[in-house]
From TrEMBL:
PANTHER family: CARBAMOYL DEHYDRATASE HYPE (PTHR30303:SF0), HYDROGENASE ISOENZYMES FORMATION PROTEIN HYPE (PTHR30303). Signal peptide: none annotated. Gene3D superfamilies: PurM-like C-terminal domain, PurM-like, N-terminal domain. Pfam families: AIRS, AIRS_C. Belongs to the HypE family. Residues 51-162 form the PurM-like N-terminal domain. The gene is hypE. InterPro entries: HypE (IPR011854), PurM-like_C_dom (IPR010918), PurM-like_C_sf (IPR036676), PurM-like_N (IPR016188), PurM-like_N_sf (IPR036921). This is Hydrogenase expression/formation protein HypE. Residues 175-324 form the PurM-like C-terminal domain. The lineage of its organism: Bacteria, Bacillati, Actinomycetota, Actinomycetes, Micromonosporales.
Length: 348
């Protein structure tokens, strides 16, 4: 029998006086929390909010990023919270064009968690760090009472070095830029949902979690002036494109038939009533580059193992600034909105 009394709305009202799951979904509610609560409290108002901060230091620039991982279940097809934590932090650094070097990890572990599971996560973190060529240099562990947490949460901080002349940030998106993506979208979110309690369905989809700094290095090696890079994680491609459009005050026009949505992802989203553009990814990137250099960048992406499925999905325009629209297969257009809250919790 369905328990309607204990259901919760995945898109709660935005004037709620308390924190709700939607505040962590990477959409409009997350942005409002940062803008109206954290930034005033910190007394800071950075000109741009990016996945990693680029900071000056003697002799060059550092990229610094921090993130927390609360994915449920902790193990899913193609990965775990461990490699997700490493790859996600590496990718946040890479989206500023930096070379990731060092990571810290901090664990919040619920009492009663199996040591075997914690060991699997730690081993996955070590293996992912070695594969990405980054060093794990410091960390911390806290244990909370049974019922005060939910398995294992992982917090990371990453440090990288930004090469001279690299200037990649959302406000650099400009009319005439081509919008590229490195491969299929929605894969990670569907992989996690396929094994979540109460949502089991057989998709054959595995998470795309992967470190993307090597792909970014190959893109930069083309010498095409890359304007924006973004890995579309929470909130998916829709959230990332809306954030970029608003930051740069450009319009973004997509061609819906060019969006690389695998059949299994499309089927799962249709079953659950989700938009693939709003489903999380963990091993894909968006690139905004001048149209004249788009083919060179696409060729470089396709030569890399994590960019084999790269394609052009749209362009920046001076029309409808701050808005993302998609041309449908029927010849019409639809507005691709920023997700408000969280479609389904604990994807990353």
């Amino acid at each position: 029998m369905l328990d309607f009394e204990n259901w919760t709305c995945p898109v709660p009202l935005r004037d709620t006086p308390a924190v709700v799951m939607g505040h962590g979904g990477g959409g409009a509610m997350s942005g409002e929390l940062v803008e109206h609560l954290f930034l005033p409290a910190y007394g800071s108002s950075p000109s741009e909010l990016t996945d990693s901060a680029v900071l000056p230091f003697p002799g060059g620039r550092l990229a610094l990023s921090t993130d927390s991982y609360v994915v449920k279940p902790m193990f899913f097809p193609g990965g775990s919270i461990g490699d997700l934590a490493v790859n996600g932090t590496v990718n946040d650094l890479a989206m500023s064009g930096s070379q990731p070097l060092y990571l810290s990890t901090a664990f919040i572990v619920q009492e009663g968690t199996l040591l075997a599971d914690l060991g699997r996560i730690a081993s996955a973190i070590g293996a992912a760090a070695r594969a990405a060529g980054v060093q794990l240099v410091t960390g911390d562990t806290k244990v909370v009472d049974n019922g005060s947490g939910d398995g294992v949460f992982v917090n990371t901080t990453g440090v990288g070095v930004v090469a001279p002349g690299v200037d990649i940030r959302p406000t650099r998106a400009a009319p005439g830029d081509a919008v590229l993506i490195s491969g299929d979208i929605g894969v990670h979110g569907v992989a996690v949902m396929s094994v979540r309690a109460g949502l089991e369905f057989d998709t054959g989809v595995t998470s795309d979690t992967a470190p993307l700094h090597g792909l970014v290095a190959d893109i930069l090696a083309t010498d095409v002036p890359v304007h924006v890079l973004r890995d579309p994680t929470r909130g998916g491609v829709a959230a990332s494109l809306n954030e970029i459009a608003r930051a740069a005050q450009v319009g973004i026009s997509l061609v819906e038939r060019d969006l690389p949505v695998p059949a299994a992802v499309a089927d799962a989203c249709s079953l659950l009533g989700l938009d693939p553009l709003q489903v999380a990814n963990e091993g894909k990137l968006l690139a905004f580059v001048p149209e004249a250099g788009a083919d060179a960048v696409l060729a470089a992406m396709r030569d890399h193992p994590y960019g084999r499925g790269a394609r052009r999905i749209g362009a920046c325009t001076a029309d409808h600034p701050g808005t993302v629209v998609a041309r449908t297969a029927l010849g019409g257009t639809r507005v691709v909105t920023m997700p408000i809250g969280e479609q389904l919790p604990r994807i990353c």
